[in-house]
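Practice record 12: protein with beta-D-glucopyranose.
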Amino acid sequence: MASEESWWQTAVVYQVYIRSFADGNGDGIGDIAGLRSKLPYLARLGVDAIWINPWYPSPMADAGYDVADYRDIEPAYGTLDEAQALIAEAHDLGIRVILDIVPNHTSDQHAWFRSALRDEPGARERYLFRPGRGDGGELPPNNWQSVFGGPAWTRVDAGPLEGAWYLHLFAPGQPDLNWEHAQVRAEFEDILAFWFDRGVDGFRIDVAHGLVKAVGLPDEAADDGSAHAMLQSQSRHPAWDQDGVHEIYRGWRAVADRYAPERIFIAEAWVPSNERLARYLRADELHTAFQFDFLRSPWRAETLREVIDDAIVSAASVGAPPTWVLSNHDVTRTVTRFSRSQPEHLVDTDWERGRWSGEEPDHGLGRRRARAAALVQLALPGTAYVYQGEELALEEIEDLPDETRQDPTWAQSGFTDVGRDGCRIPLPWHDSGATYGFSTGSGASTWLPQPDHWGEHSVETQDADAASTLNLYRAALELRPSLWRGAGEVTWLQVTPDVAAFTRGAAQCWVNTGQAAVALPPGAVVALASAPGVDTELPPDTAVWLRAT
Ligand code: BGC
């Protein structure tokens, strides 16, 4: 076990969706050059680390989560030398670098899959090829559905494997690997070492709960094999969260533990309960795992208290820090989630955008709540992830023209699910200009279109406004170490049902999700508030940090 002081136990990690962060060569696609140029921005923001979404060569069937070569850099993003320079420059600024590893599947353009399709000796066993059902094998081998919609199987239509089906829990361009195969296990341990040797501080593990499938790939018992249910839900599914996956992570932990300074893992694991999540965090497995119930919580004090307590208790049961996340590149942006009337239950799925409410969003309301939620997130014990653009309070762009949509979800769902493009719009850096400063030089357009009002939310505009969300985040990250680091356990205060208020050490965090202002404790000193003018009362949709006098 790591010592109490380890950086990753209290870190604030900034998620860089590289394609949309900053473009250094004017082609409308974010890249390493753009990211390097903005490292001073991230240092000033005050983050401890960055997590970079996949930057490996990829045909982009799923925005880089279809990896063709795990030991190189996508040419549109730069080169291995530039990656190396980025790691060094980030370290010089005190920022650690976490990469995204995609072990559940490769690209269909990966050398292994290509040799499998050529039926080279030993190649097809690394994937999950199966004969079809039905007289002519014309039906998929089981009833599993892809997370993006449609069957999780595609039939090979030519070559030596013609007629066989292969499993892809995501897009057809993302064939699932066979993790029962010793070569697959050895290969990924070697890939980890390749990047650790280059100074990388850790990995976010994509679909960490998916690698091992139930023996025999049985049909899913539930009605339609729906993969959406698999990601977030309460039920068990033969493709997800199988006990055999833990042995893989014990092997990965042994690789990480060979290195100093410490190298760490963060799991993306959508599992049915926090008890199941804690299994990934046992002492000889992974260091941290995203707490998605916090992200799924509606704007209700009672639910917030419940998800916070449950996350803390279950992480503590295995000695791990809880890991708080409000949004990422797969879910509706926080501002927009909070800009409509709130459900009673955890938000069911963000993978089906635009369906959870037909109501017009009130972005002003959503922004006030998102700012307040950020103060709650950053006051909690453990680690916090901030998705790029959250510090600008960007909203989801829900009205992208259909012809511009890139997420495979759109086509695979038969054009019924708009997918995740709306939270991936290139960032606005300047208040005006063709790409709002996203692209340098003559860049005139971006890979996803930016809306006309994007400049209002730009870094330039918010820099100049003391009350902006950007400056709120800066202030919060500056205060966080002195107010909250090492401050100890969360103890709830009884205020009203609509207020979640807790002490940690000498400091308090209060959030009001109700409709009436509440009195703050007499003599309390406001260290930071999510809205202007908070003094003796906490208005609705506002959070505050208090310190002892
Ligand atoms: C990533 C997604 C990706 C999927 C398949 C995830 O959970 O975060 O963006 O589409 O894995 O790799």
